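User: Please predict the structure of the protein below. I'd like the answer in structure-token form so I can feed it into my own downstream comparison script.

Assistant: Understood. Taking the following sequence of 638 residues as input:
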Amino acid sequence: MNRTWNVSASALALCAAAGVSGTSLANDDVIAKSKDPANVVMPSITYNGWNYSTLDQVTMANVKNLSMAWTWQVGILDSHEASPLVVGDTMYIVSPKPNYVYALDLTKEGVMKWEFRPTMDVALATSQTCCGAQTRGLYYAEGKIFYATLDGQVIGLDAKSGEQLWRTVGTDITRYEGMAGNALVAGKLFIGGNEGGEGGARGKVHAYNIDTGKNAWTMYNMGPNNEVGIGARFQKSYPYLAGANPALDSWYGDSWKRGGGTSWGYFTFDPELNLFYYSTGNCGPWNPDYRREWGNADVDANGGLKAWHNNFCASQMARDATTGELVWGYAITPQDAWDIDEPLITPLIDIEIGGTMRKVAVKASRNGLFYVWDRATGKLVVEPWMHTFQDMIKKDAGGAYVNMTTGLPSYDMNKMMFTNLEDRRKYSQADDRGGANKPENYTGTEVEYCPGTAARNWENDAYSPRTKLVYTHSDNNCRAQVMVTGEYKPGTGYTLVRTAGGAAAVSKDIEGKATTLGGQLIANDFVGRKTAWSKPINDTSRTPQMATVTDLIFKGNNATGTFEAYNAATGATVWQFRTGSRFNQSPITYLGPDKKQYVAIISSSAAANTAVAANAAADNANRYRRSGTTLYVFKLPG
């Protein structure tokens, strides 16, 4: 393992006093290249996380003429989640495990320039990480390509030759800790996170010099101040953050050592503040009795937690990009017991709110609420509102889901999780799985709640400064589960939860009514605290979307196996192309060597192909959505 070190609070204070922050520390090459819309040098295109292109050749009027220019077979049958990069006349692609990197010549319709294959134990990486083959990003800076492999290697490559310049190891795969590939280049550092909360990993972010690969710092999302990076600059914006040890003291005993809160979502960066933004995964284990005084929810009359907030899992974070110092943290779902990860992108937007220009960080959260923070202080600017149905958080006596003074949500005690029935009965008489739903292994602690696996997930959002809307794919699922007991064993799963059994939990729409609709693309007006429009997409496999200056939204539609374009103002479909497979990544658009605008996406699926009988339903997805992995590149005629 590469040696890491933690910056002490006193050292962080000295850095701040010496002025170690500001635009001089931004990476000039990244900023210059990302300002040129011909290039795509990072996921979501620019540091602010808008996933928005200013290329304007493809418009609402001519998008119907978009046609395929060329294709390229990636050769690895799996879920491709990392969008390609384009720098000059070269496109760069990274595959899921085994995490190969390809460089394609755009002057020759994708002829391969080089291929890099890391040395990795794919079987070990697969067995010791959760939820698939995820690899979600390549990053370009100063003639180099940077990325992380699923088994925790961090690698720098020469962009022209593919030669490995350096390699280090950022996580311990033998202890259930990998890397999903979400990262950032800021200044001279490549900053990444970790995954593995389901195995008891403690969330962290870690930074490496882009020239040498040497570890610069490692900061954890929970624990003692020096390991979390809490020093003189930390903003104690709310009472639950006001103690001497805001992270450590919010955990019972030493539970923070196995507390989850991993960092596997996309990062954004404000060069002026020299702060990068990310959010953290679910608390670990899911059973909250292992993270609080056993069986004691300790809430006030409104359902707000008085203790054991478990800072900072399921939280929003803002750190100094040079030192890693935590400038502010906000618990989105404190003491999370529902697997409400927050591996979500945090778009950074300058916008007028209440007659004043504000610099904000926004998030369509996985718990179903939409948050808007001042990005320098972490204070809420707009009262959070519900973008997708949830019933874990209720409105308090003042009609708010989140108290603007305390910063805390008001939990519905009927949705709180307990291991023992006698503890639950102190707070709730609800019986979600009694009666007709009563399973064979009934305990009385079963809870149904929405959203289930999540209102949304890691997929890129998009923001258009023209419409002032944030575009997000959300889904309507709900879940029923029950807490169990168990011991932590390094390298094995550590969730301490099981499915509750009985009838399946019913999905619900934004009004809380039962629905068969899997999900929708929603356009959120966060200043007006409302959803401007919602487009039904009957599939819970959420996919990213990209916006353009010509008021188009490009998106893969898994329900139909089609690559589509929508009107950004209304959601109306204006173009479709059937690829015959699924989608798991954001589209990109770039300017080719011929100065023409291209739009590209990888259509991919590793799912088994079910046989299609002659009498199968006409809309059976298997008629038009099969396994495959193909890069599709589109352009206008001429």
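That's the full token string. The CA atoms of residues 117 and 519 lie 37 Å apart.
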